[in-house]
From TrEMBL:
SUPFAM superfamilies: Ferredoxin reductase-like, C-terminal NADP-linked domain (SSF52343), Riboflavin synthase domain-like (SSF63380). InterPro entries: FAD-bd_FR_type (IPR017927), FNR_nucleotide-bd (IPR039261), Oxidoreductase_NAD-binding (IPR052128), Riboflavin_synthase-like_b-brl (IPR017938). Keywords: NAD, Oxidoreductase. Transmembrane segments: none annotated. Residues 301-312 have a biased composition (Basic and acidic residues). This is FAD-binding FR-type domain-containing protein. Residues 287-312 are annotated as: Disordered. It comes from Rhypophila decipiens. GO terms for cellular component: mitochondrion. Residues 25-167 form the FAD-binding FR-type domain.
């Protein structure tokens, strides 16, 4: 039988796709400290950084991840903000008693709670890893939890899809609005960016977040194209609660963005009030998966549906993100806005073309330096 290895093209791996991207030279050692199961296809990892100096990165960057026994690197985007990898978060929880103010009303008082949403801080990087049996690094990270917890792996920071948008550094026009458009696990880099924006507390910066994700449950029969203000699936949607919490919704920001669930103090020790942590609007778009031939999809029982739905106060649509949705978010501010897009290649390409095409051809006529994108594969 002929050897077809050099004839049949294979899908490029992470290192091949990112060969021209900037990356650090340093390999860092981290420990798999926590693993949370978000749903049947996504795990959330917190990787404790060894040593007191932390790891510096920019919101939106990814990691080359080297796991034991796998020669090739996997590429996984950092979902936590840079503050979690440097600064005060390396102090052990027990030492906070030594720096607490006796005055409960003091603006410098730290208010940590040992809850699931507000765990003791430690220097870490957070990754959301999708189940992918054909991707060796991802497959290793999906081994049984007891086989990989507390294992040491190596990581290297890279990527140019970052906030703030460096192409605008020399621009004479300010940045007044940021529009984040995510499809599926393309939310990962945008989550890091949003958390970082919340921590920095830019009161004049408007943020509009359009998040499209597949819905497992059938949509309500009362609407297919209009806003739903009563129920939506939430439990298994990656980062939905965290995003909603940062926009002041019912969701819990999980201690990210510099805040805990009570609007008091986050890991960085900033004193803030309750309510929204970023100014702007969050819209959720729930799309139906394509039906599989000869595949019967079981309808969930009312009890199952109720357990996976709850009230919310952000607009939710049971359709794809449309041109009008982007136009509404952008408004008349195209010259002072930056748009970040991350999702499947077809989605990303279509929105980049829409935003950068001339107005005469039906586009928005934005400068290419104000439209930043990354595709997930």
């Amino acid at each position: 039988m002929a050897d077809l290895t050099g004839i049949i093209r294979k899908k490029p791996d992470h290192l091949e796709r990112t060969v021209d991207e900037p990356r650090e030279r340093t390999l860092h050692q981290v420990v798999i400290r926590e693993i949370d199961q978000i749903n049947s296809a996504i795990r959330l990892f917190r990787l404790e950084i060894l040593g007191p100096n932390g790891i510096k990165f920019l919101p939106g960057q990814w990691l080359d991840v080297y796991v034991p026994g796998v020669p090739q690197a996997g590429g996984f985007t950092i979902t936590s903000p840079p503050s979690r990898a440097v600064g005060l978060s390396f102090i052990e929880f027990s030492t906070y008693e030594k720096i607490l103010s006796d005055d409960e009303s003091s603006p410098t008082r730290y208010n940590f709670h040992k809850t699931e949403a507000q765990k003791p801080p430690f220097l870490h990087l957070e990754l959301a890893v999708q189940k992918s049996p054909l991707n060796p690094p991802a497959a290793w990270l999906w081994l049984p939890k007891n086989k990989i917890l507390n294992k040491i792996i190596q990581v290297q920071v890279g990527g140019s899809f970052t906030f703030p948008p460096f192409p605008l550094n020399n621009s004479s026009k300010p940045l007044d609005k940021v529009i984040l458009i995510a499809g599926g696990v393309g939310v990962n880099p945008l989550m890091s960016m949003l958390s970082s924006i919340a921590e920095k507390n830019f009161p004049l910066l408007q943020v509009h977040f359009l998040y499209s994700v597949r819905e497992d449950l059938p949509p309500p029969t009362t609407t297919t194209t209009t806003t739903t203000t009563t129920t939506t699936t939430t439990k298994e949607i990656l980062f939905l609660d965290r995003i909603a919490g940062l926009f002041g919704g019912y969701g819990d920001s999980g201690g990210y963005g510099g805040y805990d669930e009570n609007g008091t103090i986050g890991y960085d020790g900033k004193k803030v009030g309750g309510g929204a942590k970023v100014t702007g609007q969050f819209n959720l778009f729930l799309t139906q998966p394509q039906p599989q031939p000869h595949h019967h999809q079981r309808t969930p029982s009312p009890e199952e549906a109720k357990a996976r739905r709850r009230p919310h106060d952000y607009p939710t649509y049971h359709r794809r993100i449309s041109k009008q949705d982007v136009a509404s978010a952008l408004g008349p501010d195209k010259d002072t806005s930056a748009v970040y897009i991350c999702g499947p290649p077809s989605m990303t390409d279509s929105f980049v073309e829409l935003l950068t095409s001339s107005e005469e051809s039906g586009g928005f006529g934005m400068g290419v330096d104000r439209v930043l994108f990354e595709k997930w594969w």
